[in-house]
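Hi Prof. W.,

I finally got the 2-C-methyl-D-erythritol 4-phosphate cytidylyltransferase prediction working! I wasn't sure whether to trim anything, so I left the full sequence exactly as given:
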Amino acid sequence: MPGRGVAWRNGEHGSTNVQSGRGPARSRHPRSARAIPITTEEPNLNASAQLAAAVVPAAGRGERLGPGAPKALRELGGVPLLVHAVRALARSRAVGLVVVCAPPDGVAEVVSLLDSHGLDGKDVRVVPGGASRQESVRLGLAAVPAGTRVVLVHDAARPLVPVEVVDAVAAAVRAGAEAVVPAVPLADTVKRVEPQPSGPEPVLDTPDRSTLRAVQTPQGFDLPALVAAHGKALAEGAEVTDDAGLIERFGGRVVVVPGHEEAFKVTRPLDLVLAEAVLARRRATDGY
Ligand code: CTP
Ligand code: MG
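And this is what came out:
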């Protein structure tokens, strides 16, 4: 399939592609987007309901990474984190559509950025994100075509997730799970404390580490279940830090599958150093 352009839309329920660009064929990589005719029809971008749609929240500022561009646009090996993350999803044959939730003031920039990188011929849409990760995901879900069964939610800040993790999560949802989370065991012992504004914090207890997992993305869901959970959370003002948390909160069942150490989230400056090292190793050994 030839590379499709990156489309963006303006509102939660907009049905119009207000601007599109045609992406490069895979063999060519022109640096600029070309306009293609505006359409007022809902394009059937995810023709097969068997294919998963991926929503990529990328609207955060990256405060903990320090001053600079929004985190998703910061570079790793000369390529923005967001492009790495979208490519990681596009590499999966299970994924047919990627919806990127861009910084609200950076939609046009993200469209042209994605258009200037080859994306394996996948359909990519860009929507404005929101003030919280949860809101960004909700806005992204609104751009996923009804009829899609499997949706993956993947942080732009996890640029190096291996395709095997993406495939495994999608397969577990297709096999019937309502919500699937990739996770890894913890290296450190964890203590629950009574937080203090300053000074030593009293320890409450030490959870059994063997029962704890650090969760990653992409998290996979039955689309109607996730949309319903986000709707209830909006109505109740509930805020959680991951999408599976919403499913849990409303009584749904979440299962964990093995994640991968390279699916770590770039949060602080040291994470970027580690990501550069992982990428350099991949480029040296796999021609990545
Ligand atoms: N995110 C988003 N919309 C927001 C906030 C976060 O789409 N309003 C996205 C981020 O872009 C990131 C993912 O959610 O890809 C995970 O969030 P996090 O790692 O916390 O990123 P930031 O919020 O950008 O970083 P920080 O909390 O340090 O500001
Ligand atoms: Mg954040």
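The mean pLDDT is 87. Does that look reasonable to you?

Thanks,
D.
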